[in-house]
Amino acid sequence: MNHIEMALLKKEIQRLKADYEKCEDERLKEYIMEDIMLIEQVINKNESETEAKV
Q1: Alpha helix (H) ranges present in 1-54?
Q2: How confident is the model at residue 49, as a pLDDT?
């Protein structure tokens, strides 16, 4: 994954966290949190793979 894709994912996390804070529907908040967690896992995996290559 390149740096642009990583930046876009990090920006998406920020947007989702803002949506989470505004959301009043508990079920929707759960879905938003799942999305945040999945994207964070992708970012962490990619960062660890990048560090392993260096």
Answers
A1: 3-22, 26-53
A2: 87
